[in-house]
Every structure is written in structure tokens, then in C-alpha cells.
Amino acid sequence: MALNPGDPAPDFSLPATGGETLSLAGLKGRKAVLYFYPKDDTSGCTLEAQAFNGLRDAFAEAETAVIGVSPDPMKSHDKFREKYALEFPLASDETKAMLEAYGVWVEKSMYGRKYMGVERTTFLIDRDGTIAKVWQKVKVPGHADAVLAAAKAL
């Protein structure tokens, strides 16, 4: 079931870089960007992370937390975050419970082979925990700028 603007964001609690545990309840009162990506240290995912990281001060001015989420384990997240000096948390959903709750764990196809994976998707969540905007099948160039503009307008 797809989530749409106006829907309550599904609750979650996940381990994150820096030894944190991130949860929807912990974000209450702040705007948040949850961006779901397939895999640490791949070209598209690296470009997306670098774009969000480059705009971190602008997101902070817009009072918006940025969190990257993928099914990769914490060890992979820690290496990815350190390698690219990412200054926002990466959350690990190895069980895929959050990925499924947000509808981003989907059947994909490459070269005729079907497999399950993360569909690159971003959610902007308002201060009350309601989904304000959804970007599906994200194309990386310009995406972080579009999300920032929406966060500023919220």
C-alpha cells in the first residue's frame, strides 16, 4: 500500500550511525526527510548522500533533520559515512520492517532477473509526524534541492 501526503508516517525505531537509535517519536516536533536508498557506496547512492550532505546547513536552517535509510548493516553505514564525511545519520533496517511499512521494499527487475530491493524514495514528514510530500523513483540530480525547497515551504 502506497503512502501519500496526509497519511501518518509509520512508526519506526532503528539503529543508526553514531550509536544512535532513531525513531519517529524522537523526531516529533521537527520536520524530517527520510530518504531510502538501495546500497552504501554505489554511484547513485553516493551522489545522493553527497547532495544531501552538501545542503546540511540549509536543511538545519529549515529546521529539518535528514536521515538516510537502507537495509545495509551498521558496519557498512559507518564505513560509508566516514569515507564521504557525511554529517547526518544513516539508519539500518536489516529486517526490512520499516522499508516494507513505507512501501519502498519492492520487486525490481534488471536484465530480466527479478529481485527484491529498495526503490529510491524520499518522504518529507511534518512536525506532527504526518507525511507532507513523497518523491518516488527518485532521479538523483537536483533531488536534494527539490526536497530542501519543499522543507522550507512546509
The main β sheet shows up as: 5 strands, mixed
Number of helices: 6
Shape: globular
- N→C terminal distance: 25 Å
Structural overview:
By secondary structure, this protein is an alpha/beta fold. It is 31% helix and 30% strand. It has 6 helices and 9 strands, in the order ββαβααβαβαββββα. It has a 5-stranded mixed sheet with strand order 5-4-3-8-9. It is globular and about 40 Å long. It starts with 12 loop residues before the first strand and ends with a helix. The model has no long low-confidence stretch (mean pLDDT 95).
What does the secondary structure layout of this molecule look like, with pairings?
Blueprint: E1 13-16, E2 20-23, H1 24-27, E3 31-36, H2 43-54, H3 56-61, E4 64-70, H4 74-83, E5 90-92, H5 97-101, E6 105-110, E7 113-118, E8 121-125, E9 131-135, H6 143-153
Parallel strand pairs: 3-4, 4-5
Antiparallel strand pairs: 1-2, 3-8, 6-7, 8-9
